[in-house]
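Thread: Newbie trying to understand structure tokens

Hi all, I'm a second-year student working on a class project, and my supervisor (Dr. K.) asked me to get a predicted structure for one chain before our next meeting. I've only ever worked with sequences, so writing a 3D structure as a token string is new to me. If someone could post the tokens and maybe explain what I'm looking at, I'd be very grateful. Here's the chain:
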Amino acid sequence: MSKNPFASQTFVKIWNKHFNGSLPVFTFRFINKISFVKHQFFPYYINVGRNLTNGITYELTDGDFDDFKGKTFLIRDLPTYHHIEKPKGTRLKLKKVFQYEGYTTNVEKYESLDDYLKTIYKSNSRSKFRRNINRLESCFQVDYKMYYGNILKTDFDNIFRVFYSLLEKRYNEKGEPCGELQPELWRYYCELAYNMINEKTASLFVIYCDEKPIGITFSYHFNKILIEALTVFDIDFYRFNIGHTTILKMLEWSFENKLQLFDYTQGDFDYKKRWSDSTYDTNFHILYDTKSIKSILTAKLMQHYFNLKRIFRERKFNEKYHYYKHKIFPNYKSKSIEFKPFNVETVNEVVPEFEKLELVNLQSDAMMSLRKALYDFLYMNPKKVSELKLFKCDETLYYVKGKDQILKIFIDE
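---
Reply by user tm_fold:
Sure, no problem. This is what the structure looks like when written as tokens:
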């Protein structure tokens, strides 16, 4: 039985509620496994989900149904690893418009995760991944949790609250806006993810350090395919390469659960190229009636429009557009994070009188710059963070007291 997450009643209902005002959704007899809404301004139908699907598919029926007459249909984001047959008749035709390249790992081709890693990475890279995990686990109490099929509402709300704050923190560091944090879109994800996780059409993978989420990935599940949709890690842990650890552990889960494909989705990101073993094309499909002038013209205009968008994207015009929009219009600006230049050293001088210093909460927001500097130091000099106490001397000088070591953290001006 096919479990297409983007054709499920849950997905259709929640997307329609948030982005289509719960207006009518249309299905047609000539096509299965997909539903449509009417475009608000132009004479065509577009798949439910629009640009919020990752790996949608459909199936043309064998019956002699002609409810496509005089109509045009746009179906976005179809990966070529879903094999879709062309229309068999002479009246209904298909235009494919290439848009993006995507990346995958063909899990079923390999006997184990170790077998796969040996094919894409040299031994020094594999050793580095193990070292990242070992050092993280030396400094923190680490738990790896895949929520798939069952998640308590309290756990979900806590994870998504942290998810939001980590995305906000990450994009503030980059000085860029994050589209997913738009209020309506985030409310949609919150409602959708909880329901789909419990239905086993989505999952949340979380890395906990000392019971705090530091890496979170939301994915869709399409039968034996895992589709990575939204991911983030805590920039405090940048030195520990949490992003790579997340992929490694999710691949481990994929092998243990005998998945066929791990889809990193579209996007020209270095980590996708490094971790994948194959690529695919993502196309838009335009179905149209060749005996309708309106349908033919609409299909041709759409084809030219999306080809032009792709060319603009490939020439980086869209990046320039967003860059200048971000710079010019205040509504698109995000708070930029500036890290203070803290240094960390082992104390070899006179031990300070800790009873005269102020005990400070290392996990407070005000300590973000200091905390990142300390974690960078601990990557090379592992110590259990839970055993460390932070003391403030002044705004530029702090001390960290451990069981067998004292550290000085100071601003190097």
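A couple of things are worth pointing out once you decode it. The mean pLDDT is 92. Residues 153-174 form the longest helix (22 residues). Feel free to ask follow-ups in this thread.
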